[in-house]
Protein: 5-bromo-4-chloroindolyl phosphate hydrolysis protein
Organism: Chryseomicrobium excrementi
Amino acid sequence: MNSKYTAIRHVLNIPIAGSSLLLLLVPFDAGLTLSAFVAAGTYAASNYSIKGVQKYHVVKKHGLTWSELQHISKQVGEAQEKMRELNQYYTKVRSFRSIKQLIEMNRAAKRIVQLVKEDPKRFYLVESFFYSHMDSALEITKKYALLVRQPSKDASTKLALLDAREMMDDINELLQQDVNDVVKQDINRLQLELDYAKQLTTSRLPEPKGDQPHER
């Protein structure tokens, strides 16, 4: 569960635990140790209860099981870590074309991750991005950066560099296709809405009137 829900729990739990502490100290004079112990227990019980309500809300909202949401959250976190690692190679690839490729790959990855965070169900539209494409993008970028830093480039190194550039192009195309896959349902929904609006507009247009006979 993300930090937003954790913060909400703390905001609710602290006043509840604080109230129980004051209640035991002032009216009942239960002593600081016992009061603090009970307040801690109240905090834990409150935290557990509120977390259960939050889990129910999240599961109902997204239509997924809690284990599915946990798995998707883990995959998103790993993808973000790989994106941060990929960002470290801007100064290591040493060519405008490769920098442009990195920018495009990062932009596509950021778009996919953001959309999946907003709607976890989209994860199943782009599983290949999380399970293989992001790994491939990082590995080929590492390989290219290693090759380009070689002090002397013989024929085999130059050929390997060329292959790496072509593979980066291929990975870029895969990531762009992943973006298309994750937004495809939005495009389809928008098209349906446009078609429906068009039908409504057409049905409300006045029917053309035929030529009226001239009065004599």
